[in-house]
Amino acid sequence: MNLNYLCYFLLALAAAGSALLPYPLAMWFVLASVLTFVIYGADKMAARKAWRRVPEATLLICGFVGGWPGAIIGQQLFRHKTQKQPFKTWFMISVIINVALLLAAWRFGFIN
Q1: 71-80, Cβ contacts within 8 angstroms, sequence gap of 24 or more
Q2: For the segment 58-109, what is each residue's pLDDT rounded down to a tens digit?
Q3: Which residues, including other chains, have CB under 8 Å from residue 66's CB and lie 6 or more apart?
Q4: How far apart are CA 38 and CA 42, in angstroms?
Q5: pTM here?
């Protein structure tokens, strides 16, 4: 199985799992963050061993859809993708957009 497809499959499983749990939005952020953290760790290990890597677009998407807390922790703990531009810039833009959308959804009553 292609590593990229595996990442998206696991993200879909996390979405389905969070929908079945109490507080689905909070659980989504927890599951997406844990999954994104694991993906960053796996990609760092793949980089060290010259294995097939997770595409940067997949890392950015995992962060954008709610896994950015896990991505930030993974970046710092694994020292992975902390210096690379423009990845760093796109990642921060995705975090800002994600937080802005969450605040807007909360402000307009879509989430409590």
Answers
A1: 71/33, 71/36, 71/37, 71/40, 73/33, 73/37, 74/36, 74/37, 74/38, 74/39, 74/40, 74/41, 74/44, 75/40, 77/41, 78/40, 78/41, 78/44, 79/44, 80/40, 80/41, 80/43, 80/44, 80/47
A2: 999 999 999 999 999 999 999 888 888 899 999 999 999 999 999 999 999 8
A3: 28, 29, 32, 33, 98
A4: 6
A5: 0.90
